[in-house]
Design goal:
The complex is a heterodimer of chains A (about 210) and B (about 300). Chain A is of the alpha/beta class and about 210 residues long. Chain A is built from 5 helices and 12 strands. Helix content of chain B is about 45%, strand content about 10%. Chain B has 13 helices and 9 strands. Chain B is globular, with a radius of gyration of 18 Å. In chain B, helix 7 crosses helix 9. The chains are: A alpha/beta (about 210), B alpha/beta (about 300). Strand 7 of chain A pairs antiparallel with strand 1 of chain B.
Chain lengths: ~210, ~300
């Protein structure tokens, strides 16, 4: 992937209401992007791409509503802004949350149905090397109380899967892309791996 | 633990990773499933299951211990956010029980009566992550050297008085700043003075932060308290008695969540602080018979 032109610094918003915002910010800045931390609707001005970080999706969902950022996020989904969501961010960007709270809002940016805490509790959180399509060398993937994709729509590129332990082990998607939207169950930002962020930025440049 | 398929669980990165996900959030003390639901509805990032909130432990006296496992399971069934629980300082058997209950974090807590006067739990021996209290940088680094994956200020729990939390936070953050400007010879002296491993002192000096997230606990009662400690460098807050000992727990819980997320926006802080009703009745630190922060070393 080609490095960004020094003259072109895309403005990337990170939803900064809760979660591991700092790690995403560090990666985006190292890739040459200008970062806007989004806490209130006025903060979204000029944003060309969006990152939804890891954290607690129920908390973020409530804070999105109370701040009014939810309407901005819905508009950015309609405007087809490039977006990357990790863990809680993936839950918020999904079309459907299978076991979410009734008041939990999903923004339907990508045609997937997700299940929260699919591996179990924190004791089942893990790290592993994961092969991800289009990414070259395996990514070091840190899964923290991670969600998985239970259903991916026909237009969705499933970039990586893992085996979900259970009575009958089955393979489920954990990295998906549909057009301009990328979601991951794990936290590339915790391993300081910027390749999915680079992919996000390449979609801005493609405009 | 590493499995045949290459997965590793219970690693330092996985343990600290959950703490990273809680940053910017509020962890609320709850004593039953009903309170846990209220906390989750208000936007808590996690709940801490315990038998009595610190204000009641303080009032009732006696030995405070790990909660009844049935109570913890009831709370685990009621909410989808992470559930933490407290073990007594040094009481590794309580910690083993909590791990078998699959709680998401164990708080080796001075709020409970210590079980060992010389030893904290060897937290590396567990798959489940631990949070520990600290009053200063040395104590924080000793707990991290024992395997803690998150540090919180001790503050003075159950008082509704934020002054001790502020003291501890300022001490930790202030000493981190000093360590970062120390030269290599001075760092050895810092290690000696802090009674902490030189490797951890070197890591603090290089990064300007603790190797694990630093949260604040002990005496927070208002949205403004949450804002204060976040501005002083806390990465998230624990609220114990401050919510369920107030006159309107649901509103206060929501307000503290908002205040923690928007900690540097005074207009939002003013808005969420309006008409919350009575905060918990507070205590002067000088009037206390037992200072919980003095437990642990």
């Amino acid at each position: 992937m080609s490095p960004l032109s020094p003259l072109r610094r895309p403005r990337v918003g990170i939803v900064a209401l809760q979660g591991d915002v700092r790690e995403h910010q560090a990666i985006l800045e190292s890739l040459g992007a200008e970062v806007a931390l989004l806490r209130m609707p006025a903060d979204v001005k000029g944003v060309e791409a969006l990152v939804l970080p890891g954290g607690e999706s129920t908390t973020m969902s409530l804070l999105l509503q109370s701040s009014g950022l939810d309407e901005e996020l819905a508009r950015m989904v309609d405007d087809r802004l490039p977006m990357l969501g990790t863990c809680a961010g993936m839950i918020l960007l999904a079309r459907e949350v299978l076991d979410g709270r009734p008041d939990q809002r999903c923004f339907g940016a990508i045609d997937v149905s997700v299940r929260r805490n699919a591996f179990g509790r924190q004791l089942d959180s893990f790290e592993a090397e994961l092969s991800v399509r289009h990414m070259g060398a395996p990514m070091h993937a840190v899964f923290i109380r991670a969600p998985v994709v239970e259903r991916a729509g026909p237009g969705v590129d499933v970039m990586a899967t893992v085996d979900l332990p259970g009575d009958v082990a089955r393979s489920v998607p954990v990295v998906c892309m549909e057009g301009h939207v990328i979601v991951a169950s794990f936290h590339p930002e915790l391993a300081a791996d910027g390749r999915l962020h680079e992919l996000l930025l390449s979609k801005v440049e493609g405009d | 633990m590493t499995y045949e398929d290459g997965r590793s669980t219970g690693t330092a990165r996985v343990k600290r990773g959950l703490a990273e996900m809680l940053r910017g959030g509020v962890i609320m003390d709850v004593v039953n499933a009903e309170q846990a639901k209220l906390a989750e509805d208000a936007g808590a990032v996690a709940v801490m299951a315990l038998e009595r909130v610190p204000a009641d432990i303080r009032r009732d006296g006696g030995v405070a211990r790990m909660s009844d496992p049935a109570l913890i399971e009831g709370i685990q069934e009621a909410v989808t956010v992470p559930v933490m629980a407290k073990a007594r300082i040094g009481h590794f058997a309580e910690a083993q029980i909590l791990e078998s209950l699959r709680v998401d974090y164990i708080d080796e807590s001075e709020v409970l009566t210590p079980a060992d006067e010389a030893h904290h739990i060897d937290k590396w021996a567990f798959q489940v992550p631990f949070v520990c209290g600290a009053t200063n940088l040395g104590e924080a680094l000793r707990r991290i050297s024992e395997g803690a994956a998150m540090i919180r200020s001790k503050g003075e729990a159950g008082t509704g008085n934020v002054v001790e939390a502020v003291r501890h936070l300022r001490s930790i953050v202030g000493d981190i700043r000093k360590v970062t400007t120390a030269d290599s010879a001075e760092r050895f002296r810092w290690a000696k003075q802090l009674q902490a491993p030189i490797e951890l002192v070197e890591e603090v000096a290089a990064t300007g932060k603790l190797p694990v997230p630093l949260f604040c606990a002990g005496g927070l009662a208002t949205p403004a308290d949450a804002s204060l400690v976040m501005q002083l460098g806390a990465e998230a807050v624990f609220v114990g008695s401050g919510i369920f000992k107030s006159s309107d727990p649901a509103r206060r819980a929501t307000a503290i969540v908002e205040a923690t997320a928007h900690f540097d926006d005074p207009e939002i802080l003013a808005k969420v602080s309006k008409g919350l009703g009575e905060a918990m009745p507070g205590s002067e630190i000088s009037s206390l018979e037992v200072k919980l922060a003095e437990r642990g070393w």
